[in-house]
Design goal:
It is a single chain. The protein is an alpha+beta fold and 71 residues long. 37% of the residues lie in helices and 15% in strands. The chain contains two helices and two strands, in the order ββαα. It has a two-stranded antiparallel sheet. The longest helix has 20 residues, at 45-64. Residues 1-71 form the Protein kinase domain.
């Protein structure tokens, strides 16, 4: 993920692993998660459209670089 540079993707700064644990040091991002914003209630059409366009942009960007995401 260090190779992925996109304005809507949190940057991976460092990766460390021990026998039993994996540590990811990520870029600090001010604000809240999209999940939190959605759970607060109905989003306006414009805000929902903006978030959706950003998500589609991320998926397209990652696919164009051979990066797959699974949660």
């Amino acid at each position: 993920m260090k190779l992925v540079r996109h304005p809507h993707i949190v940057q991976l700064k460092e990766f460390m692993a021990t026998k039993g644990e994996i540590f990811l040091v990520m870029e600090y991002v001010k604000g809240s998660e999209l999940f939190t914003k959605v759970n607060k209630g109905k989003l306006s059409k414009n805000l929902a459209r903006m978030y959706f366009q950003q998500l589609i942009s991320i998926v397209d960007y990652c696919r164009s670089r051979g990066v797959t995401y699974r949660d």
